[in-house]
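Data card: per-record layout.
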Amino acid sequence: MLSSIRLKNFRAFTDTSPIGLAPLTIIVGPNNAGKSSLLNSLLLLKQSVADESSSEPLTVSGPTVDLGSFDDIVRGGTQHRDRQISIDLEVDKSWAEDSILQIEGLEPTRHIIGNRLSLSFGFDPAANRIDLTKSGFFNGRSAALEARRDSRSGNLVLRIPGFSRTQIQALQPDLDRIILSLDVRDVDAYSGFGDQLGSSLLHARYEALQQRSNWLSLLSGIEHIDPLRDPIPRFTVLGRTASSAEGVGTGGEELLRILRSSRSGKNNPLVRAMDYWVSERFGLLDRLRLVDVDEAGRIISLLGDEAEGMPGINVANMGEGISQLLPIVASILLLPKRGTLLIEQPEIHLHPAAQADLGDLFVWAADASSSTPRQLLVETHSEHLLLRVRRRIAEGEIDPKLVSVLYVEKPRKVARVRQLKIDERGSFEEWPEGFFEEGYEEALQLARAAARQ
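The structure for this 453-residue chain is written out next.
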C-alpha cells in the first residue's frame, strides 16, 4: 500500500512535502483547491506505465486521465524556469517485505526491495519531448547498449558490440548505469538476464530491476472510479467470447459483464456480496440478482425488489442513486489484497443516510484485521460520510491510524495539503478554518432570523 506521496511543481502545488496516506484516506476541501490533483498524479503514472506505444516516459493525455499538455501540469506552465515536475511515492514496510528478493540457484538473501520511488520529469524544448530527468532508483537515460525484443519469446535481447563475456564482467560499474537506464516498461521481459551477464552481476542488477517491476505492478494495479458513473443499462448483450474486462470500468460500464463472469453455475458470490451491502447495509433494495433475458444467456439484466414494494424491478428503473453506488461496491469487492482504489465523489445522487453508509463500506474495506485489507483514496464533499467514519473510530470499529484525512486548500493561489490528525474519540486535534462550517453557519443564521420574528 502507498504510505505517502509528495508532489513538487505539479499543477497548483509548489511542494506538498510528504503527505501521509492510510488504508482509508479521505480528501476534502473547497472546489478547485487541488483535491483531484492528488489522485491525478497517481493516474498519470498508471497511464504512463501502461502506454507501451509512447516513446516518452510520461503520457499526460490518454484514456485513463487527460491532463492536457506537459505545460498544463507544470506549476506556472511555460513561465516556470525549468519546466519540471516531481512525484515521490513511498509504500509501507509490509509491501516491501512481501517483495523480498529470491533468485533461484543462489543463496537466499534478505535484501528488502526499496520502498521509495522518486521521479522527476522535464521538458526538452530542443527535442520537443518529455524526459525522465531523475529517478530515485536509476540515474541517466543514454546508454551504449542495444536492446531489442525477441518477436518469438517476447524476451529482451541484450548486446554490447565488440565485448566478450569476460570483458562484460569487468565493466560492472559502467553496466550499472547502462542497464538501469533501460525503459521501465521493459522490466518484465528480463527472464534470461542473469545468464547473459554472469552470476557475479546478478544480485545488484536483478534486484534493481525487481524494484522497478514491483513498482510497475503497484502503479498498473491502481483502480479508479470516476465522479460520474454511467447509468445501469436496462440489459447488456454479451459477445460470443468472454469479456476481457478485469474491473467494472471507471464509469461502471462493464458492471453487468463482470457480474456475469463471476457466476459459477447458479452461484454468484459477487452478486451475493453486493446484495448484502445494498440490501442489508444501505437498505436501498431487496434481493439483487442477475438474470438471463434470453434462453441462450447472451442478454442479461440486473433486477432487484423494491424495499417493501414491487418485486423484480429492473435496476435501470430505480433511479440514479443505485447507478452511482453499485460500481463503487463492486470495485471494492473486486479489489485484491492491498490493492489501491481511487474514488471521486462517491456521494453523488445519494441521500444523507446512504452517504453515511458509504463510510461503513469504506471502514470495512480498510480494516487491517480482515483477510483482504484494501486501500481507498476517497475525494469527497460529504460531511455525512466523514462523520460516520469518525463515529466508527470512536466506537472502536477502526484504528485511527488506519484513517488519514487530508484537507486541501488554496490560500493565495497556492494549493497546500493539511493532514488532520484524529484521536481515538474521532475528534480532530485541529479544526481548520472553513472545514465543513456551512451547517453551523446556516443554523446560526436561521436562529438569528427566527429570533427577529
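Known properties of this structure: DSSP finds 13 helices and 17 strands in the chain. The longest helix spans residues 202-220.

See the next section for split statistics.
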